[in-house]
Design a protein that fits this description.
two-stranded antiparallel sheet
Length: about 250
């Protein structure tokens, strides 16, 4: 599947992969910061943003989508940065198509399965009544019980089209709901590893990467380093953009 891309800048290719419920536009500030040095390509992963919808969200399929898109864009090798679900897609790309990945950056996700904590969020999104007169306030209220944090509700509602009649989700919500077990999982192909430079960036306030995950990282990515971004949780690039970019630039300079 060829994915929708947003490009900025010129220079060596730098690819950005968003997390679950996100889109290429989530990387706007990072893309702008890097565009003076790189050709920065932010992709909408399948069932997200303006990319096509399709059944299945396994990471082999997501990595194949990214590989196909890079080839279509004439990119032979790139620095690849992925956050959360996008981090797993980036890891799978590096393990299965290492020639496409010059450097790998993984933002706040580990190469392991995670608990099904977000299924209630998907169910709440599916339960929003998409009638013709639905307002943003009503949609926000419909999500409140499952998603008590207002910033996260605002993030989720970026995917809801209020200009359509009836209202509609921009993302492939049914496909995502069906694929949650695949999204939560991570199963690297046996015997694979990526020998290029790699960095795992964790939000200091986030539980997503634990100290005991470091061994699993090193088994797959022998040259990996680790960075903790202070004053940041899971959305580390949004919560502490200066710290995130500082750690990123330090890695790129090595």
């Amino acid at each position: 599947m060829r994915l929708h891309a947003i490009e900025a800048g010129q220079g060596p290719p730098f690819v950005l992969l968003h997390g679950l419920f996100g889109s290429a536009r989530n990387w706007g500030a990072v893309q702008k910061a890097l565009a003076g040095e790189y050709r920065v390509v932010a992709l909408d992963l399948r069932n997200h943003g303006a990319s096509p919808h399709a059944a299945g969200m396994g990471y082999a399929a997501q990595a194949a989508d990214v590989a196909e898109t890079l080839t279509a864009l004439g990119i032979e090798s790139a620095v690849v940065l992925g956050h959360s679900m996008g981090g797993k897609a980036a890891m799978m790309l590096a393990l299965t198509r290492p020639e496409l990945v010059e450097r790998l950056i993984i933002a706040d996700i580990a190469p392991r399965p995670y608990a099904p904590a977000l299924r209630t969020v998907v169910a709440a999104m599916q339960a929003v009544p998409l009638h013709a007169a639905l307002t943003r306030t009503e949609a926000d209220q419909a999500l409140r019980a499952a998603v008590p944090e207002a910033p996260i509700r605002s993030f989720l509602l970026q995917n809801l089209r209020f200009e359509t009649t009836p209202r509609s989700w921009r993302m492939g919500l049914a496909e995502i709901a069906a694929a949650m077990p695949e999204i939560e999982d991570f199963a690297p192909p046996q015997g694979t590893r990526f020998d290029g430079p790699a960095l795992a960036m964790a939000g200091a306030l986030s539980p997503y990467i634990r100290a005991e995950d470091h061994a699993a990282f090193r088994a797959l990515f022998p040259r990996i380093g680790f960075a903790s971004i202070p004053r940041a949780g899971h959305w580390l690039h949004a919560e502490n953009p200066e710290g995130f970019l500082a750690a990123l630039r330090a890695f790129l300079a090595t």
